[in-house]
Amino acid sequence: NVSAGLLGFFFVRLWTSAIERMGFLRQPFTRQENTVIQTCVVAAYDIAFSGGFGNYLFAMSGTIASQATEANDAQNVKNPHIGWMIGFLFLVSFVGLFALVPLRKIMIVDYKLTYPSGTATAYLINGFHTPEGAKLAKKQVRTLGKFFSFSFLWGFFQWFYTAGDGCGFQSFPTLGLQAYKSRFYFDFSPTYVGVGMICPHIVNVSVLLGGILSWGVMWPLIHNNRGSWYSADLKDSSLHGLQGYRVFISIAMILGDGLYNFVKVLVRTSLAFATMVKKNSTIPVSDVGGAMATGEPVSFDEQRRTEQFMKDQIPKSVAYAGYAAVAAVSIATLPQLFPGLKWYYILVAYVFAPVLAFCNAYGTGLTDWSLASTYGKLAI
């Protein structure tokens, strides 16, 4: 979000400054326009993230299916193709627009949930549209360009020493050849260095501990029991062999931790929601703009913001009809894309989706932690 806000402001400011000097622009670049740019960028990469490009879309491919022996037939394989992927995303991506329309006022106006990352981005955009903020944005973009150039040139330099897999700086045996056989080496990748810099210590230490325990202790120990724990004739890449232990132990740990966090956030969300309802005695679902009558004075600016926020929105009747229409089209169309998918699976998903959307939206507003991917894992 921060990168999108920073680069959106910088590039559009360059463009508006250029056409302003040519005499074609008279209006200033406003924070509202910056917010629209931010929203479009976030929506685009959210589609890439939650649309399955990093997991299930490619998990259905023949390449992944070839690693298994059960149910490895044409009905269970769907190779990625731009045509059906675009159609699939059009079918499933618009439903959130209609499902969350009735929740806008409840979450933002009535409950005043903070949505920490969104609030931080709003402060960032507000800061950009001040003289000091514009100067700071230029410095940030200049620093971004320096490190981008260094990373690009370093990757280009590494290319000269790469002749194939396991060659060059990408597989440098930093800890020795014996450790290299257990996949302990350094690849000099700026990508992972950057990820380590941006991730909190708990994530970095956890990944390091997991790598040492798995590749240093568990996998060599399991490999030494080859022929006893699994057939010695199997390749290490077979899911019935060593790869099966790697995959299913890792998935079990991820699902166990995800289920724990899911229950924890769900309990926190339920308790906070019950406290809020008890405090205000009624659930805030009225159509009247403004904050709920809590006895607290509301400033004129706050009233104007609420009025503007509630002025342009999709009517609830249109939202309900749109949700039903999208659900009907999906129920009729998705089984054509995926023959193994039954229509009543989709119907059940659309019945439960609004409830899960409310829970996830409320939990995200409180904790800034979206559990959308966890809902998907539990559904599987």
From TrEMBL:
<dbReference type="GO" id="GO:0035673">
    <property type="term" value="F:oligopeptide transmembrane transporter activity"/>
</dbReference>
<keyword id="KW-0472">Membrane</keyword>
<dbReference type="InterPro" id="IPR045035">
    <property type="entry name" value="YSL-like"/>
</dbReference>
<keyword id="KW-1133">Transmembrane helix</keyword>
<dbReference type="GO" id="GO:0016020">
    <property type="term" value="C:membrane"/>
</dbReference>
<keyword id="KW-0813">Transport</keyword>
<keyword id="KW-0812">Transmembrane</keyword>
<protein>
    <submittedName>
        <fullName>Putative iron(III)-phytosiderophore uptake mediator (Yellow stripe like transporter)</fullName>
    </submittedName>
</protein>
<feature type="transmembrane region" description="Helical">
    <location>
        <begin position="202"/>
        <end position="222"/>
    </location>
</feature>
<comment type="similarity">
    <text>Belongs to the YSL (TC 2.A.67.2) family.</text>
</comment>
<dbReference type="Pfam" id="PF03169">
    <property type="entry name" value="OPT"/>
</dbReference>
<feature type="transmembrane region" description="Helical">
    <location>
        <begin position="343"/>
        <end position="363"/>
    </location>
</feature>
<dbReference type="InterPro" id="IPR004813">
    <property type="entry name" value="OPT"/>
</dbReference>
<feature type="transmembrane region" description="Helical">
    <location>
        <begin position="318"/>
        <end position="337"/>
    </location>
</feature>
<feature type="transmembrane region" description="Helical">
    <location>
        <begin position="82"/>
        <end position="103"/>
    </location>
</feature>
